[in-house]
Amino acid sequence: MSLSIGILTHSTNPRGGVVHGMALAEALCDAGHNATLIAPDATGGGFFRNPRCAALCIPVEPEPDLPTLVEQRIGEVRDALRGEHFDVLHAQDPISANALAELMEEGCIAGFARTIHHLDNFSHPILAARQERGFMAATELFTVSMVWKRIMRDDYGREALVVGNGVDSARFSPTPEGRDALLRARYHLPADKRLILAVGGVERRKNTLKLLEAFLALRQEEPGLHLVVIGGASLLDHSSYRTLFEARLRESGESAHVTVTGPVGDEDLPAFYREASALAYPSIKEGFGLCPLEALACGKPVIVPEISPFIEHFSKTDVLWCHPDHSETLLQALRNAISLKSGNRFQISGPATALRFDWRAVASRHLPAYQRLAALSHVDTLGSGVANYA
Q1: Sequence-distant (≥ 6) Cβ neighbours of residue 187 within 8 angstroms
Q2: Over the stretch 68-117, which tens digit does the pLDDT of each residue have?
Q3: Of 156, 95, 157, 158, nearest to 130 (Cα)?
């Protein structure tokens, strides 16, 4: 049975949950369902790329204070969805999940699904409460890795289905494209240096400061290297950590050998991977880690920490390992990554590893829960006359 499915994300920017939501919606459409990608759009520019599915961008007002912003966004998403009709509504984040929880409390919908990508550590009580409510109120719960399944079960008493992640191996591949040749000029990167790539911006969770320390040490041995940190669009405030990063970089005197681009064009992301000698991804907390998959699909050496979730879906030979708390292990992994031997090895093994992760399989794992939600909404409509999205 074909379903109408609304996939909700917290923004139109290329963060992990948004990328996952878009790819899921596209895979559901490929499987014959009618999926719509839904998000608040603060800029009016739409999603970071044009999805291969219907999209609903909700106009929203800017707000600098994060707790106020969260409450405002919940209301904006909730109000926008009152006029929409879906068999299934599926939130990828706390903001949209709270909007759906309020609609459920009002009797407007019978239930909703939520995917846990990761949980943030909020000191503000309102943000912490909203994060927890967003998954405790959900009718069906998914996670992208076993580590978050265990956290949901052990800490909150909620069972969740692990759906995983995928990668588009047609888009992310070792084969160069025309725009690759101009990438360095577009982003003012040195033409004669080998690039170490980091994705996700300068954030504590991404462990960017530890990466900088390892890079600075490696440049003493290999001066022909340049660190590039791309991305970083976020609702959260990472300014204090960025200040630490910038101060350390100035102190080192190596600022000319590090580029922090901020958000980049989505069409340039495969080229960044292909131009890089390695992806360094020493993140201390992830739901899954999409970027390592994308880099592997492009045939590049990838460094990840030897912790969950990475140890769940990568073998000892799929990637290069480090310990996120020890810069020397990251330094050694970087040494290994830039070696000719690693470059040749990953050109073959990387795309083969990426083929194990398929968005069609990810989409199919959602369907039993979707069918239960659709049936629940249908029964509620027939039995009580309550308005909902069936």
Answers
A1: 228, 259, 261, 264, 268
A2: 999 999 999 999 999 889 999 999 999 999 999 999 999 999 999 999 99
A3: 95
User: Which of helix, strand or coil describes residue 258?
Assistant: strand
Which residue has tokens 């739409």? 46
- The pLDDT score that the predictor gives to residue 387 is 40
- The dihedral through the CA atoms of 329, 335, 338, 339 has a sign that is negative
DSSP alpha helix (H) spans, 303-355? 310-313, 327-337, 340-354
pTM over 0.70: yes
Q: Which residues on neighbouring strands pair with residue 321, listed in sequence order?
A: 304
Burial class (CB in 10 A: 0-12, 13-18, 19+), 214: buried
**Element containing residue 259 per DSSP (H, E):** strand 258-262
DSSP state at residue 44: S
**How much is the pLDDT for 340?**
75
Query: Which residues on adjacent β-strands are paired with residue 280?
Result: 303
With b for 16 or more beta-carbon neighbours within 10 A and e for fewer, the 297-312 pattern comes to: bbbbbbbbbbbbbbbe
End-to-end CA distance of the chain: 14
Q: How many Cα atoms within 13 Å fall on the side-chain side of residue 251? A: 8
| Alpha-carbon span 10 to 188, nearest angstrom | 31
- Tallying the residues shown for the chain, one arrives at 390
Task: Report pLDDT digits (tens) over 2-19.
Answer: 999 999 999 998 888 999
7, 34 Cβ separation under 8 angstroms: no
Helices and strands of the chain, counted as H and E runs: 14, 13
Residue 388: is its pLDDT beyond 60? no
Partners of 116 in the β-ladder: 143
CA distances from 128 to 90, 112, 347 (A): 21, 20, 43
